[in-house]
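User: My notes are a mess, but here's the protein and pyridoxal-5'-phosphate's SMILES. Can you give me a structure?
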Amino acid sequence: MQRLLQTGLNAGEADGPKVVGGEGVHFLMSDGRRLIDGSSTGGPLGHRHPAMLEALRKAVEVAPVVSEGWYWEEREKAAEELIDIAFAGEHGWVGGVRFFLSGSEANDQALALAQALTGRTALATRERAYHGLAGLSRAVTTQPQWHGGLSILSGGVRPAPVPFAVRQLPAPEGARFGRPKAPRPAAELLAGAQETLSDAAAVILDYTQGGLYYDPAYQDTAAQAARAAGALWIADEVVTGLGRSGRWFAFQGAQSRPDMVTLGKPLAGGAAPCGAVVLSRDLVAELGGKSWQSYSTFRGHPLMIAATRAYLATVVRENLLDRVQRLEAIVARRMAEIAARHPAVVRIDGRGLHWTIELEGPDWRNWRADTTQTPLASAISDRAREAGALIGTSGEQTSLFLAPALIISEADLGRLLDALDYGLEAAA
Ligand SMILES: Cc1ncc(COP(=O)(O)O)c(C=O)c1O
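Assistant: No problem, the inputs look usable. Here's the predicted complex:
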């Protein structure tokens, strides 16, 4: 009987070698191989980064066991540093921060706060979104295979029900390489957005999931529609925030500013579970003297706080934002070649160090992970493993994503892209 119950990133029944350790950007596998981890959205500094080791060792020695319910000086310092370092360019906007346990929990709590503030229950996102699978974040995860219910193998799907309306805006279109359909202008795409959002507490938008990336005109148009409809706008920067975009936050690429920003994955440098919600100055003022009635024992845990402070310092010390911009140019050059060489590739899009490769195949809307057969994306990932890299598929049937650690060397990045190129031959 299976004792550990979990869902894999790649679909299908095949059991690959197991991860037994990590070093730099490599996973150490049970068959003795070293594979570049190409799917490390939660590991911006790779494995066992010296700054993380030092911060955690120290925290274990000196930190109290203190729940979210007690004020603790170090947690306050972490909030100050997050605001002073990461939001340094946003001092006119930023209000306050609350720490959480994961990106899913941060989104759940941001959405719940939006419901409380607006008195509305409907929530909104865009097509093909993924915002997590806990509480309200599950409700706005609209990728059909991540419904939070049961995939009944070869027999249909039983999604977990949601007791309120979930609205979807059309997703941004286009892509950098391949044969994407010509993108419609944001004003046309989002012409009905104000109407769609008219009863929504909030619209939450992210900039990678489903292979749909940052578009400044889309952001400004959606933000305007949300404001006019009386809905709050939550920027889900769980993946894009804190380095991966090549700037602190993806939303900084346009004029508009959200009401809330949610963070997770890289926030604690991959060394501890983490999440955060950052509220605008206006929203903090709107809270006035009201207490944000929510609590969880381990939120802002001392290990997370130590790791977060060390990560922020490392981004600055190692100049990681510039580094990501430099590596983005290298990836873009290779992706142009890969799109041209593999006819199965329909579109490739990406920003910074997050890229999605979408393949010819069945429409993603019909994929519910309810088959035991290995989908094409997983077969490509299996083949890429032979060439030395682990590439994730987000559980989708026709798309793969690349998100290596931000500290990856140019040589290892080249190897990762070689492995992708080699893996794609499985599509032929
Ligand atoms: C955009 C986005 N938001 C939220 C989440 C949820 O974060 P977590 O898995 O840490 O709960 C994810 C996870 O992949 C994500 O990609």
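The mean pLDDT is 95.
User: Great, I'll file this with my notes.
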